[in-house]
Amino acid sequence: MDPFRNMGDWKKNLDHFFGDRFWNEFEGIMKPTIPQMNIYQKENELFCIVNIPGLNDLDNVHVYVDHATLELKGVINIDHVGGHIVTEEILQGSFERKMDLPFPVRDDKINATYGHGLLVIHLHRLVTNKKNKNRLEIRNLEDEE
């Protein structure tokens, strides 16, 4: 008899009881996200510091900035040949992370540097003088009668 045969039913029942997103709360505990990232905010600037060890070719990491979203795609690959792994705490493999930024950023003023295993992305707040306040035209129904 397979003790895990009904595991799917158990998960469905928990999803039904706690909500569909119940397991998402545990994702960072069970499998930490890579790469790790810190975001620091000044008044009109953001500094995103991303931990990417062993990056030998900068073309292996793709950084996309769109309005108020930062997206990273790439591969962490620690090329160590020989022996077998006794302890593995540095997560490796393909990654894809999408982060919401606290404010929209300029697309013409972005700087990214890599050194000592850290990717530093410097972003600047998008400040516009354009006011999005539009006066609404009110139609008089009595004039249409």
UniProtKB/TrEMBL annotation:
Domain of life, per lineage: Bacteria
Pfam families: HSP20
Domain SHSP as annotated: residue spans: 28-141
Family of the protein in this entry: Belongs to the small heat shock protein (HSP20) family.
Name listed for the protein in its UniProt record: Hsp20/alpha crystallin family protein
Lineage per the UniProt record: Bacteria, Bacillati, Bacillota, Bacilli, Bacillales
